[in-house]
């Protein structure tokens, strides 16, 4: 049944995808499609916007209103769409580099404004598309084509970043925990406000091969699993034990005035007055 | 001098040149097809083969900002990009030139979105033609390599002090392996010399870079940029001559190929000229007297020189790898302007080719040559613009 749901929401003539064998992005895409289906959203009122990167190719495959923009700008474009047509359901799909390097500014401001958009970051710890350069989420000490002997930098905790900026729903899940990932994405779609899901992907080609995980997908998936700790488990561990771990779960689920509604109330209050 | 060829891609040749220049600071963000430059250079840094501080910044906007900051502080600073990367740098691209910072940037030409396309054309650098940068276009990996050293000398020349873009064609040059004859490190070191410009921020006197400049002095400062550009051509000629004398490698601002007895020529820049030369050789076998003219410099535009070279011919066809919607393609437009005051003008026609990486192949160049013959004999298509190899 699931397969039919997925196929119905895909542009089957565009398959197979351009993703490498073992790439984690397809599994996240499936979870997203199933969640959209559960929301009962029509193709005509669902808008999926992406930037550039392997994750950025998602809009090409989804049968809905989709927009493939420039590197880092998915949320900028999405903001415009939501403003023009607040009744549309707007989802922004981004890679980790897309969202937090070149497009980092849009991410924090979308969260701060609390605009009703769901942002999904396909985090594979690397710039996949351009051949494995380190990104702001590449773990400390790990290799990439621009950190051949290990990454000297400290990565972002994207969930904390977005929480700090003011998002009303923030969660992280790994791609192999598929059922849970789908549930989390569904919650994010239900949220009225800026919702953020960091979906942990794998990139065997550009990350795995350089970090002793080879291009074997299962090794990469197992590594992500071995690094992941649920929020409940994490509460029992020391900060040292949690160093470098991927903590999963829902971190924020609160209510705050949504941006467009506030905008109509304040910025347009004069215009709305009876003259 | 080394006599051992190395098999290098254009990108590797650029990275090797950067390694031998050993800049103080390199700030970059990856973008196809520039990435192999970044990755190779990063390897040099990691292996301790250069003394460079390499900053892997979070976008091209930051890459150019950091490069300007570093150069402003007196460092030899370099970067590299392509297409949308250059577009994102835009704001600071102008600032680098107007602040008179001798930055050398590798530009791997790629079509500027949209629609998104990762392959070669010159729409990226042509968009920046009025930014105040010097632009040098390279035909092959060897030229890329040699251009870097000359570019550095040009940029840092006291009469110039302007940033230089060293352009090569994305994928066609950047990713194809060719034989490149490198120089020895010591030779490069000697040729480029010690940097002879002081960073404004490290001069004896405290300076401010980039303060507000309004109706009072802005125009004078712009005129200085204009004047600096006027110094470029004589400086390049001097440096090219020195390069030829030192390394036995001769480069001209405008390269001519089999033009001695030609009455018609194809004019174009970068990698397509390799194909053009080959087709000319084939046509020569058939007794067709056709030649080629390749400007290596687009900014400043060598107008006087191009006019002198081209006025020898009856007909010329200009190949542009970018369009200027609603106007003349860039190279064509510049050449038309160069001829405006000339008494003797050849028949002249434009072809736009190779957009978004479309291959400009032997057959197409043969078609151009037959168009050239018609143009020469009838003059009918004089002043027309056509697309080459479109459906
Ligand atoms: C302005 C600009 N700079 C750089 C690029 C090159 N580029 C394309 S995708 C990408 C990074 C992709 O990594 P990520 O966003 O993490 O997504 P992934 O491919 O890993 O899914 C980069 C640097 C670009 N397209 N535009
Ligand atoms: S490079 Fe990595 S992220 Fe891109 S398709 Fe391949 S495995 Fe997936």
Computed over alpha carbons, the radius of gyration of chain A is: 18 Å
Number of strands of chain A: 10
How many DSSP-defined strands of chain B? 15
Structural class of chain B: alpha/beta
CATH class of the largest domain in chain B: Alpha Beta
Rounded radius of gyration of chain B (Å): 21 Å
Shape of chain A: globular
Q: Span between N and C termini of chain B?
A: 49 Å
CATH topology title of chain A: Rossmann fold
Strand content of chain B: 15-25%
Q: Low-confidence spans of chain A: pLDDT under 50, at least 5 residues?
A: none
Associated small molecules: thiamine diphosphate, iron/sulfur cluster
Q: State the share of residues found in helices of chain B, binned by percent.
A: 40-55%
Summarize the structure in words.
The complex is a heterodimer of chains A (275) and B (391). Chain A is of the alpha/beta class and 275 residues long. Chain A has 13 helices and 10 strands. Chain A has one domain: Rossmann fold (3-Layer(aba) Sandwich), CATH 3.40.50. The radius of gyration of chain A is 18 Å and the shape is globular. The model of chain A has no long low-confidence stretch (mean pLDDT 96). Chain B folds into 2 domains: 6-246, Rossmann fold (3-Layer(aba) Sandwich); 254-387, 3-Layer(aba) Sandwich (Rossmann fold), CATH 3.40.50. Chain B has a 7-stranded mixed sheet with strand order 3-2-4-5-7-6-12, with helices on both faces. Chain B has a 6-stranded mixed sheet with strand order 9-11-10-13-14-15, with helices on both faces. Chain B is α/β, with parallel strands linked by helices and 391 residues long. The longest helix of chain B is centred in the middle third of the chain and has 30 residues, at 218-247. The N and C termini of chain B lie far apart (49 Å). The model of chain B has no long low-confidence stretch (mean pLDDT 96). Classes of the chains: A alpha/beta (275), B alpha/beta (391). Bound molecules: thiamine diphosphate (TPP) and iron/sulfur cluster. Iron/sulfur cluster (SF4) binds next to loops of chain A.
């Amino acid at each position: 049944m699931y397969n039919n749901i997925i196929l119905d929401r895909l542009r089957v003539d565009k398959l197979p995808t351009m993703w490498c064998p073992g790439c984690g992005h397809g599994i996240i895409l499936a979870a997203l499609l199933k969640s959209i289906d559960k929301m009962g959203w029509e193709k005509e009122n669902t808008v999926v916007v992406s930037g550039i990167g392997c994750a950025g190719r998602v809009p090409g495959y989804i049968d809905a209103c989709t927009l493939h923009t420039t590197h880092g700008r998915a949320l900028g474009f999405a903001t415009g769409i939501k403003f023009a047509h607040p009744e549309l359901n707007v989802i922004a799909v981004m890679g980790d580099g897309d969202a937090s390097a070149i497009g980092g500014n849009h991410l924090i401001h979308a969260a701060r404004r609390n605009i009703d958009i769901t942002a999904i970051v396909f985090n594979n710890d690397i710039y996949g598309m351009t051949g494995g350069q380190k990104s702001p989420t590449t773990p400390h000490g790990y290799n990439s084509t621009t950190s051949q002997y290990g990454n000297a930098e400290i990565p972002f905790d994207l969930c904390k970043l977005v929480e700090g900026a003011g998002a009303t729903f923030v969660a992280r899940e790994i791609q192999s925990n598929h059922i849970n990932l789908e549930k989390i994405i569904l919650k994010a779609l239900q949220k009225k406000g800026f919702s953020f899901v960091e979906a942990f992907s794998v990139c065997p080609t550009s990350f795995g091969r350089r970090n002793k995980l080879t291009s074997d997908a299962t090794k990469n998936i197992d590594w992500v699993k071995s690094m992941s700790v649920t929020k409940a488990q994490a509460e029992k561990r020391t900060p040292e034990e949690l160093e470098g771990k991927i903590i999963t779960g829902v971190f924020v689920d609160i209510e705050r005035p949504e941006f467009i509604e506030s905008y109509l109330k304040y910025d347009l209050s004069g215009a709305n007055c009876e003259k | 001098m080394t006599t051992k060829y190395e098999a290098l891609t254009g990108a590797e040749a650029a990275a090797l040149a950067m390694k031998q220049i050993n800049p103080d600071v390199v700030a970059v963000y990856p973008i196809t097809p520039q990435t192999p430059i970044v990755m190779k250079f990063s390897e040099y840094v990691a292996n301790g083969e250069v003394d460079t501080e390499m900053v892997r910044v979070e976008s091209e906007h930051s890459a150019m900002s950091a490069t300007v900051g570093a150069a402003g502080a007196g460092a030899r600073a370099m970067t590299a990009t392509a297409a949308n990367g250059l577009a994102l740098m835009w704001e600071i691209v102008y600032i680098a030139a107007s602040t008179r910072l001798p930055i050398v940037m590798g530009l791997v030409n790629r079509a500027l979105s949209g629609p998104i396309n990762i392959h070669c054309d010159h729409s990226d650098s042509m968009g920046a033609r009025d930014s105040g940068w010097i632009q040098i276009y390279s035909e092959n990996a060897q030229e890329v390599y040699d251009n870097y050293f000359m570019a550095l000398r040009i940029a840092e020349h006291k009469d110039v002090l302007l940033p230089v873009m060293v352009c090569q064609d994305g994928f066609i040059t950047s990713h194809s392996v060719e034989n490149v004859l490198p120089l020895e490190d010591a030779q490069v070191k000697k040729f480029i010399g010690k940097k002879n410009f002081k960073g404004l921020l490290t001069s004896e006197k405290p300076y401010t870079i980039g303060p507000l400049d309004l109706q009072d002095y802005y125009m004078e400062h712009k005129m200085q940029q204009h004047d600096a550009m006027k110094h470029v051509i004589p400086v390049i000629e001097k440096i090219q001559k020195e390069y030829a004398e030192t390394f036995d490698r001769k480069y001209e601002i405008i390269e001519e190929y089999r033009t001695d007895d030609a009455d018609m020529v194809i004019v174009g820049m970068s990698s397509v000229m390799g194909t053009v030369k080959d087709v000319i050789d084939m046509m020569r076998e058939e007794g067709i007297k056709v030649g080629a003219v390749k400007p290596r410099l687009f900014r400043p535009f060598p107008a006087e020189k191009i006019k002198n070279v081209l006025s020898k011919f009856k007909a010329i066809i200009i190949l542009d790898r970018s369009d200027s919607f609603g106007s003349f393609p860039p190279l064509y437009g510049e050449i038309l302007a160069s001829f405006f005051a000339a008494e003797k003008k050849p028949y002249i026609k434009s072809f736009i080719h190779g957009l978004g990486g479309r291959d400009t192949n032997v057959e197409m160049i043969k078609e151009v040559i037959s168009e050239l013959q018609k143009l020469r004999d009838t003059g009918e298509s004089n002043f027309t613009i056509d697309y080459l190899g479109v459906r």
